[in-house]
Structures are given as C-alpha cells and as structure tokens.
Amino acid sequence: MIIKITLISSGFLESDELSKKIAVIYDLMLKQLSKSDHYDFGMRAIKSVLRALASIKRSNREMKETNVVIKAIRDMNLPKFIADDVILFDNMFIDLFPDCDEPENDNDELQIAIEEAMLEKKL
C-alpha cells in the first residue's frame, strides 16, 4: 500500500499495476540474489527508489511510467550488484516487464571521459 500511495501522489496513473511489480521485484531480489552484506532490499531501499522515480517522472514527463520505474530501480540498484547478480537482475526485469525495453542512459560524455582517461593511463 505504501508503494501504491506514493506512486499515486507522484502522479502515476498505472499505480496499481506498477506498485505490485515494484513489490515483486524487491521480493525477488531479496530471495534470489546473493546475500552480500551491502545489499538492502528493505523498506528504506524501496523508499529511495520511490523518491528517485518521482524525480525522474517530474523531469521526463513524456517517458512511459513503466520505463520510469525500470530506470529508477536499475539506477538505484545496478551499481551495487556483483557481476553474477547483474544477470539474475536483468532476467527478473525481462520476466516482470516483458514488453519494455531498457531505458537508455544518457552517459555518453561520461563514457568518453572514461575511455580517454584509460587511454592516457595505458589501461
């Protein structure tokens, strides 16, 4: 209910369906991903994702609501996952959101800067 109410207050029209999917993905992450100490799939993590998706929705009003949810969950969780868990995480998204593509990250400038730095250091 907390997820659904937060989505409604953020202006999501598909709050009922999306709130269920958010709850399911966090439950799946808790049960299926490795038990690393730095993982947090509790209410604090969910609230952080809800704040992030509200911010994404405000700044990208034309983005589909499902893509907003996917982007927020991926942006908030992927950086802390170990390599083996990334594959499982991606498969969870394919199962829960079969008709949606992964939202594009606009990080071209960052990618270019990283590649240039690696070339300078001969990495």
Q: How would you characterize this protein structure?
A:
The protein is mostly helical and 123 residues long. The protein has a single domain, classed as Dynein motor, AAA1 domain, small subdomain (Helicase, Ruva Protein, domain 3, Orthogonal Bundle). Helix content is 67%, strand content 0%. The protein contains 6 helices and no strands. It has helices at 2-9, 15-32, 43-59, 65-77, 83-96, 108-120. The chain is globular, with a radius of gyration of 16 Å. The model has no long low-confidence stretch (mean pLDDT 88).
Summarize, please.
By secondary structure, this protein is mostly helical. It has helices at residues 2-9, 15-32, 43-59, 65-77, 83-96, 108-120.
Number of strands: 0
Radius of gyration: 16 Å
- Alpha plus pi helix count: 6
- Low-confidence sequence ranges: none
- As for the number of domains, it is 1
Give the N-to-C terminal Cα separation.
Answer: 49 Å
Describe the sheet with the most strands.
Answer: none
CATH topology: Helicase, Ruva Protein, domain 3
> How does CATH name the architecture?
Orthogonal Bundle
Helix content: 55-70%
Structural class: mainly alpha
CATH secondary-structure class = Mainly Alpha
